[in-house]
Amino acid sequence: MKTKILILLLISYQFSFGQSNYINYYNKCNEAEYRLITNNITIAKQTYADAFKLVKKPFGKDLYMMAKCFAMENKFDSAYLFLKKAAISVFPFFEGNIKYDPTWNSLFNHHPEYKIKVIEIDSMKINKEDNDKDFIRKTDTIRYFVKEDQLYRVAYTKVQDMGYDSTTNIYKDALSKMIIQDDRIQKELIEYVKQNGYPGLIQTGSDELSIVLVHFSRNNVQLIKPLLLKGIDEGNIYPMEIATMIDRIEYSFEKKCGFSFYSMNYCKESDWPEIIKMRLELGLGIYLGGYGRSVNEKREIFPWVGKLIQ
What we know:
Elements: H1 2-13, H2 21-37, H3 41-52, H4 60-72, H5 76-88, H6 94-99, H7 102-110, H8 112-130, H9 133-150, H10 153-161, H11 169-196, H12 201-204, H13 210-213, H14 218-233, H15 239-252, H16 272-282
Helix pairs in contact: 1-16, 2-3, 3-4, 4-5, 5-8, 7-8, 10-11, 11-14, 14-15
């Protein structure tokens, strides 16, 4: 009984005074997606609608999922409106998601004319991105940081794979070069974020920079974390992008339970209330695990759902 009371308090916390609208928004969308994959379409639509009221610019993926709700009810006119909104936002693999989703395939079999409209939407998005200089600069920046992050990491991995002992000069040299390069590129990324914001999923439709974030040193994590947390509050950063970094470096490396990404193996049932609290505070949601970046991602329902919350 005490546990159930605690969970109810934690759920109500997300709507308490001072909580970011965007954090509430992401928590709501996590619940809405759970309702959708468990075929509670009416509740899913209402939950998405409630979430959209909280922010000026919903995330493209969530607009797409709302469209899917209507498509599952064969209400294409409404589905089309949300697809169009999703296309205008930065959203990756737009037509590709539709092609591989049986929800849309069955609909297009009955209404082939709708498929033409959807392809037109996708073309509109592609043309917008191809001619958006700011978008191109941001994607080029992502490629640069990822390339620099991997520059010496690949060589270090090869040394490990070849079986060199950590006491050998070859091993030490490879490790030293990687550490120096990591610190340089991480500090450069911190300065970039200060000046330009974080070019992640919401800005570019790509979360490739997460590759760089999870390699951050503990000291550099403390420097970039306030910037990224501020970005979440302002609706410019998808919570998962910072959560994986924190979970790996501050929890998994210390063999402690965190947000249940990298640290999953260190989490026990007794940790559930703290995990729920932490996830609500960051906007990760408490119904579905995984990364939540793709509309076709197969996401697991957390074990506490059904036991502690509905």
